[in-house]
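Structure in, sequence out. Go:
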């Protein structure tokens, strides 16, 4: 460890230089932990010296969790990026900085900067670790979107899913963290696109997300969707799709799934189709929509 960096201005002393970098960045996420210029420069010096090159991701994970679960995780992420550590530990996330995306009003913002705001919004909502971790990863496929399509991100889900799997394997995260991060990557923007006149698509979305059998996981996805929405500059506090989805869930709860499956016993495909059709019709009635059978994009 460099003599001048053995003790940081935050009073942290760790035997391993790499752990020292990560611990200080994680502590920056605390309410009173914002780093001064001297400390940030010290972190950058250690990273430049190569202390993270051979650092085991499994040893990094507890410090990432410490920062993600603190009051201002965006500060940890910013500290890691500004000292160069994010590019070493999470290059897939670091690659998002500088990439544009459009909000619902068509305004452009940097995806990396947006990530800071999402992390802090989830902390403010007291989200569990699985949601906060998914908030780091759901946009990974946008890092190298074809320039000719920007600010749209054509087929980013296809690129993002394997990257999410790689990150989760690297840090050996708990299965529920991997599961939610993959779900968010695949479905978050479809939740944002949910519309009253597309009741069939909403019913299909709920089925794909297993919202009926796994309501807690679906609620976590909605928590991330709300944070993503609120993280755009100028967005309101109320996520407009939340009431729409809640109405659809209540409508679907009235469908007699057991009877429909019994009616089509022995034909799994027909039973699934009948259940979806009834759920779509129920959502259409609840939303007063006639276009309940419009197919998913």
């Amino acid at each position: 460890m460099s003599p001048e960096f053995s003790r940081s201005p935050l009073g942290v002393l760790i035997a391993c230089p790499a752990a020292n970098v990560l611990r200080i960045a994680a502590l920056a996420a605390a309410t009173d932990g914002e780093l001064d210029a001297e400390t940030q420069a010290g972190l950058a010096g250690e990273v430049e010296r190569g202390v993270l090159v051979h650092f085991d991701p499994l040893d990094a994970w507890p410090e990432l969790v410490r920062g993600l679960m603190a009051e201002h995780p965006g500060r940890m992420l910013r500290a890691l990026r500004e000292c160069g550590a994010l590019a070493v530990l999470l290059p897939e996330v670091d690659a998002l900085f500088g990439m544009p995306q459009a909000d619902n009003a068509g305004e452009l913002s940097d995806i990396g900067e947006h990530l800071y705001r999402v992390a802090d919004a989830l902390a403010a909502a007291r989200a569990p670790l699985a949601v906060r971790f998914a908030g780091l990863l759901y946009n990974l496929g946008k890092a190298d979107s074809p320039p000719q399509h920007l600010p749209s991100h054509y087929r980013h889900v296809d690129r993002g899913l394997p990257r999410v799997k790689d990150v989760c394997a690297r840090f050996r995260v708990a299965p529920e963290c991997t599961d939610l991060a993959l779900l968010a990557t695949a479905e978050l923007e479809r939740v944002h696109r949910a519309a009253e006149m597309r009741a069939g698509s909403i019913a299909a979305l709920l089925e794909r997300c297993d919202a009926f059998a796994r309501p807690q996981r679906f609620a976590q996805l909605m928590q991330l969707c709300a944070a993503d929405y609120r993280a755009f500059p100028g967005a309101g506090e109320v996520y407009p799709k939340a009431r729409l989805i809640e109405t659809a869930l209540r409508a679907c709860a009235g469908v007699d799934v057991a009877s429909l499956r019994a009616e089509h016993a022995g034909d799994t495909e027909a039973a699934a189709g009948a259940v979806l059709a009834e759920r779509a019709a129920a959502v259409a009635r609840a939303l007063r929509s006639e276009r309940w059978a419009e197919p998913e994009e």
